[in-house]
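In response to reviewer comment 3 from the previous cycle, which asked for concrete evidence that the modeling workflow produces usable outputs, we include below a single protein chain processed end to end. The sequence was submitted unchanged, and the resulting structure tokens are shown without manual editing.
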Amino acid sequence: MLIHGGCHCGNIRFALTWTPAPAHIPARACGCSFCVKHGGVWSSCAGGVLRVTVRDAGLVQRYAFGTRTADFHICRACGVVPLVTSDIAGQRYAVVNVNAFEDFDRSLLRPLPVSFDGEREAQRLERRQRHWIADVRFD
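The workflow returned the following structure tokens.
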């Protein structure tokens, strides 16, 4: 399944190839203050392929907080956060914001509340390596 998405103005765009085609797509609503305030609901397919295009890199702000092990890609023009990346041992991993999906059957989404409170940094990185998209390229 091919899922397109991006920020509101189109400066940050992505195409996610979800393999194999899913019966449903997990939509994890993170409870951290940043995600709550921005409406971040994240999903990933460990076997998927993510291609990201940025029209104007000068309009992309990266924001890292807490453990500083993940970068939220924020469009400075429209304020939307369509994806998050984490570089671990020379490999880039990513999750995408389901609220940034376009022309998508939202009935496929399965909300899953999550809490990462108490998770140590090593555990966090290992979880990302297991569950986040590992084939990530910025074109």
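The longest strand covers residues 91-97. We consider this sufficient to address the reviewer's concern, and the full set will be provided in the supplementary archive.
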